[in-house]
User: What shape does this take?
Amino acid sequence: MRIREIHLTPVAFRDPPLLNAMGVHEPWALRTVVEVVTDEGLSGLGETYGDLSHLQRLRAVAPSLTGLRVHALHEIHARVAASIGTDVGTDQHGLTGAGSNQKTVDAVFSPFEVACLDIQGKAAGVRVADLLGGPVREAVPYSAYLFYKWGAHPGEAEDRFGAALDPEGVVAQARLFIEEYGFGSIKLKGGVLPPDEEAEAVVALRDAFPGLPLRIDPNAAWTPATSVRIGQALEGVLEYLEDPAPEIAGMAEVAAQVPMDLATNMCVVTHDHLPPAIERGAIGVLLIDHHYWGGLLRSSQVAALCKTFGLGLSMHSNSHLGISLAAMTHLAAATPGLDHACDTHTPWQDGQDVVAPGALRFTDGAVPLPDGPGLGIELDRDALAAMHEQYLACGITRRDDTAYMRRFEPSFVPKRAHW
Ligand SMILES: [Mg+2]
Assistant: This one.
């Protein structure tokens, strides 16, 4: 069964003003929907970033993939690598570590791989999780992913989530998410306010939701010394501390002095980073993300490596739609060592999706594996067309949280080891 056509559709959907160390989310988030169609009429779905530079790389490689077998994933990866050449891609807005050639190749390959696995599953009448070794869990727990946020984008009416700029606002946001989704663990995106204020919010969450695992992710906005001080202060409160300080060296320095595991989706984002991070004891938990670790099978292999070296696993998320949620759920369901609830931005999409309703739902904070073969989802073509129109109309072609923030706070500087 061979690839006959590939359709790439950039889409935009509304995104609330979520704050992070780089700035603030713009009113529209971008993604690219990848549809692979075979000579036998089967089609498969993938989803990836929507930044124009990434879209251009997808468009450049797609013609070289037609005619290849959907099972020839190594060959597809080789064609992608040949198309990328020595290009060192721009990184994803500074929040997933530095760009590199390997990461760029793996990020471009990923949605094609997911779409081919979707097709392989449909052809064999099995789920993608079955292709990854079979599910070890039928439902995948996700965490309530909290953000400091403004009540609205400037000039707009307050959104339904409201503002969260202090511990009370953060606790209220957690309460809303837990009521609506049933989440059993909580993550707070930090790096926005002074570290002691963010630590206060974590303690307020602990007091409001005793027993729920908690984590905070300042996106390397803290110095190692601050990270150590806050980490020690939060002993017994956090399940892990995510990317408090920059780089493997900084993380290793912190890890040696705090009582909890450090987690990362910033200092270990390609295979090259694993040996030094492991050797220096920089991390205890890796946040896997199939969007830049080269798809589901390669992520599965990295997960096995983590098990070998005694690292725990969690899962990273960017703003995404249902195709990514389905892929993340299949991967997590078939990853035995994934011992922490996964991150997801799904609540922030507030019902917007390109996936037809019914296949994906949250029950007690977990997403049950869809029943159907492959990813078990169907494209909602009307929604896809509407979101593509939004992409064309919104005027945004690459995510830039910093430039958007500077429109309102001209002196804003991204916070890397800032405190
Ligand atoms: Mg992170």
